[in-house]
């Protein structure tokens, strides 16, 4: 109850209490919420700007991979198009990649033609890895990327 005048009538049995038992683990989990890992392969960087198609009219400035990354960041972090544009621009700046960032109007227009992999259900628990190579964007959970890249790890008995 947010109303102060009703606070005296609240039953003490139903008071919600959240007790943190392990403060160091709790604080580390709060710090880890701000951690993001984005992997761009050399093939994806080379394919960021598409080649000229030789047709009349305006040539596309951004490849499907660039549009797909922008849309996926938007879906995962629940961002509006303008904020997703700024977020992608800041990621590219942090990675020292001088690539053109798709603007929100282009992303909105090309959203209908680009095939974006939709996440079924929710994201996996733990870290989420964005892996971008020449075949497109992949989202993997904590151990998924390692097993896809290197195969299943043999367990020692």
Spatial arrangement of strands, main beta sheet: 1-2-3
Number of domains: 1
Radius of gyration: 22 Å
Oligomer status: single chain
Beta content: 5-15%
Average pLDDT value? 76
Shape: elongated
User: Count of DSSP helices?
Assistant: 6
Number of beta strands: 3
Q: Label the structural class.
A: mainly alpha
Detail the poorly predicted runs.
none
Distance between the termini: 55 Å
The ordered string of helix (H) and strand (E) elements is HEHHHHEEH
List the helices and strands and how they pair.
Elements: H1 23-32, E1 37-40, H2 42-46, H3 64-77, H4 81-94, H5 104-110, E2 129-133, E3 136-140, H6 144-150
Parallel strand pairs: 1-2
Antiparallel strand pairs: 2-3
Protein described:
The chain is mainly alpha-helical and 157 residues long. The protein has one domain (36-150). 36% of the residues lie in helices and 9% in strands. The protein has a three-stranded mixed sheet with strand order 1-2-3. The chain starts with 22 loop residues before the first helix and ends in a 7-residue tail after the last helix. The mean pLDDT is 76.
Give me some keywords for this one:
157 residues; mainly alpha; 3 strands; elongated
């Amino acid at each position: 109850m947010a109303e102060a005048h009703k606070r005296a009538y609240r039953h003490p049995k139903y008071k919600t209490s959240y007790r943190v038992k392990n403060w160091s683990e709790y604080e580390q989990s709060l710090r880890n919420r701000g951690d993001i890992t984005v992997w761009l392969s050399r093939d994806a960087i080379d394919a960021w700007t598409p080649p000229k198609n030789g047709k009349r009219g305006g040539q596309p400035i951004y490849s499907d991979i660039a549009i797909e990354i922008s849309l996926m960041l938007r879906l995962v972090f629940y961002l509006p198009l303008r904020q997703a544009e700024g977020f992608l621009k800041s990621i590219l700046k942090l990675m020292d990649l001088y690539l053109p960032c798709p603007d929100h109007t282009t992303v909105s227009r090309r959203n209908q033609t680009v095939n974006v992999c939709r996440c079924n259900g929710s994201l996996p628990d733990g870290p989420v890895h964005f892996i971008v190579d020449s075949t497109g964007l992949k989202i993997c959970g904590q151990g998924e990327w390692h097993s896809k890249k290197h195969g299943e790890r043999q367990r020692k008995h």
